[in-house]
Design a protein that fits this description.
The complex is a heterodimer. Chain A is mainly α. Chain A folds into 2 domains: 121 residues, no CATH class; 145 residues, no CATH class. Chain A contains 13 helices and no strands. In chain A, α2 runs antiparallel to α4 and α7 runs parallel beside α13. Chain A is globular and about 65 Å long. Chain B is built from 5 helices and 15 strands. Chain B is globular, with a radius of gyration of 26 Å. Chain B has 2 domains: 39 residues; 184 residues, Jelly Rolls (Sandwich). By secondary structure, chain B is of the alpha+beta class. Classes of the chains: A mainly alpha, B alpha+beta. The interface between A and B is medium-sized, with 20 and 20 residues. Chain A: One of its GO terms (biological process) is mitochondrial electron transport, NADH to ubiquinone.
Chain lengths: 270, 301
């Protein structure tokens, strides 16, 4: 746990100068908010791991077994990645950054916390994971509804996708990994396309059709894939997750997740 | 005698200990919020040391009214979400190229504005705001006096300002204006030839940014004809507490708080400014991002 915590801190410290590179108060604000949230989460991880080591005598990551320690570390990792209800920092931070740094924040910065989440998945509270997942999916769909800024839209999309990943973690971690991989691919596509078009608002996307028809089509397909529309790739993880939830006798949870996916699809389609 | 001297000595030592410790403990015990946040206090006025709980004026009726008002606003916000951004359909947001943000068409429009002068710091300027003829414009008029107040501290005086109120959503949360679809400020006004300054305040995060404003000049033509002023947002420069900053950056338009007009041209006498409307528009021909060079000061050689 100590080495994992050190890795997370180094990860945070490394991206801070990249975020603050743009000498604008909004970038500094985003950097400060990111640093405060990540430092809090890292401190909570250290606290939980120390508590587990004190009570259970084990520093191993996948041997965390004390209930309070497990809950604390799950919440800390949820804060790290921006799961609801610890998601409030993500849209504001992404809005203050340029598209390249936003891409790194949405993709690369999720890998380390997810590595830890996957390792502790067997010992986490199932009810907590379900709550986090459902809340994230709903918040991601509701929050993204009237967004006109593309970075905030992608932030809420990230929150929703993380909800899908977390909810299936307790039943099939392999699906979480698959969902994460596909999410990273789709999000990278979106961010890089938006960077080529230099657009950060939906108005500029609307005007892009005559200028770059191929890229606009690609963005449209990527958005539909993010929304989980068949037969695009983004549909596959959602379908598999719903199938697994149904097998685990959680039809209500599956229904709520599907409805929230419809909310997300609504603002992607617009 | 010896006992009295010993008692005196002890008391003196004890008093000195209390004095020394109160000096060191004072910053920890009672933090002077006004000094910390740089709040202005009129010279000669005693600091307001009333504790916050003594300033409460409890009224049950007002409380109920407030609850009703704020929950009503919350309900409206939730319903607006289903319509589109800012309660308008998305197609409207996508297609709009102009938006009239403030227009003066009735007495309720004046309530969105605040007028202030150097009277607050002891000066003698006056400014008033009223509706113009046929309720079709607002008129800001008054008299400027640049005589500084005789308080021993203030050196300069003679200003007046008209500033829009901060928009508030439910439960008095700040609401910002999103002008990111536009790039030009469009104002229809009629002045008296005096030079004004337009100030735009954006949402800030750090306490040292609370006085940050983005300014640009507004030169009015005196005369019977209305003047259409179009100022691109790329021309606005950053100032803090009235001082132009070395580190300049463009105004981000997604979180605008207020707009204001300030007159401080050191010319004593009457002034008047009529404003018909304040709008924003998207000038497709204007592609400049920022008008000022951002070169490095003290470059390495």
């Amino acid at each position: 746990w100590i080495l994992a915590w050190m890795g997370l801190e180094i990860n945070t410290m490394a991206i801070i100068p990249l975020m603050a590179q743009q000498h604008h108060p909004r970038a500094t604000e985003a950097t400060t908010k990111y640093f405060l949230t990540q430092a809090t989460a890292a401190a909570m991880i250290l606290f939980a791991s120390t508590m587990n080591a004190w009570t259970m005598g084990d520093w191993n990551i996948n041997q965390i077994s004390h209930p309070l320690a497990t809950t604390t570390v799950t919440l800390a990792l949820a804060l790290k990645i921006g799961l609801a209800p610890m998601h409030f920092w993500l849209p504001e931070v992404l809005q203050g950054l340029n598209l390249t740094t936003g891409l790194v924040l949405s993709t690369w910065q999720k890998l380390a916390p997810f590595a830890l989440i996957l390792q502790i998945s067997q010992n986490t509270n199932p009810a907590l994971l379900t709550t986090l997942g459902v809340m994230s999916a709903l918040v991601g769909g509701w929050g993204g509804l009237n967004q006109t800024q593309l970075r905030k839209l992608l932030a809420y999309s990230s929150i929703a996708h993380l909800g899908w990943m977390i909810i299936i973690l307790q039943f099939m971690p392999a699906l979480t990994l698959l969902n994460l991989t596909i999410y990273i691919t789709m999000t990278s596509t979106m961010f890089l396309s938006l960077k080529i078009m230099a657009s950060t608002k939906i108005n500029s996307l609307a005007l892009a059709w005559p200028k770059t028809p191929t890229l606009t089509t690609l963005i449209m397909l990527s958005l539909l894939s993010l929304g989980g529309l068949p037969p695009l790739t983004g549909f596959m993880p959602k379908w598999l997750i719903l199938q697994e939830l149904a097998k685990q006798d959680l039809p209500i949870t599956a229904t709520i997740m599907a409805m929230s996916a419809l909310l997300s699809l609504f603002f992607y389609l617009r | 005698m010896a006992l009295t001297s010993a008692r005196l000595l002890t008391r003196t030592v004890h008093e000195k200990w209390i004095c020394a410790h109160s000096l060191t403990l004072r910053p920890l015990v009672c933090i002077n919020k006004a000094a910390f946040y740089g709040e202005y206090r009129r010279p000669g006025q005693a600091q307001d040391r009333t504790p916050p709980w003594k300033k409460i004026r409890f009224s049950f009726a007002k409380g109920v009214q407030g609850i009703r008002k704020h929950f009503g606003l919350l309900k409206d916000e939730a319903m607006e979400r289903w319509v589109g951004p800012q309660g308008r359909p998305l197609i409207e947001h996508m297609l709009e190229q102009t938006r009239v943000q403030w227009e003066f068409r009735g007495p309720e429009s004046l309530e969105q504005w605040l007028v202030s002068t150097d009277r607050e710091i002891g000066g003698r300027s006056e400014a008033y705001l009223k509706l113009g003829r046929n309720d079709s414009a607002c008129m800001l008029y008054g008299t400027l006096c640049s005589t500084p107040p005789r308080d021993g501290e203030t050196c300069y005086s003679g200003y007046c300002t008209l500033r829009s109120r901060q928009l508030l959503s439910s439960f008095d949360r700040k609401k910002n204006i999103d002008w990111s679809s536009f790039n030009t400020l469009y104002i229809r006004l009629r002045g008296d030839g005096r030079p004004w300054m337009i100030n735009i305040a954006a949402e800030t995060y750090f306490s040292h940014q609370k006085d940050d404003l983005y300014n640009y000049f507004l030169y009015t033509r005196g005369g019977p004809y209305w003047q259409d002023v179009k100022i691109p947002f790329s021309k606005f420069f950053l100032s803090s507490r009235g001082r132009i900053q070395d580190n300049q950056h463009p105004l981000w338009l997604d979180k605008v708080s207020t707009i204001g007009f300030t007159l401080g041209d050191k010319a004593d006498g009457p002034f008047q400014l009529e404003i018909d409307f304040i709008a924003v528009c998207n000038d497709r021909a204007h592609t400049e991002e920022f008008a000022y060079e951002m070169y490095k000061r003290n470059p390495e050689v």
